[in-house]
Fold Cysteine-rich CWC.
Amino acid sequence: MDKKICPICGKENNCAHENKRDSNTCWCMDVKIPKEVLEKLKNSKKDNTGGCFCRSCVEKFMAAK
């Protein structure tokens, strides 16, 4: 399990925590993800990497909302 990998697209998720940076600097701290979008993201996982979703996938799912 590589927690640095997005479970949807398989690309690096750029998670600050997993990259040993201050979690407060992570891109996800500035994004509000509606519950229904979060559920769609969770249901779209292709792999169980244990990692966060990447910004690109989150933005795609939010645009399709």
The mean pLDDT is 93.
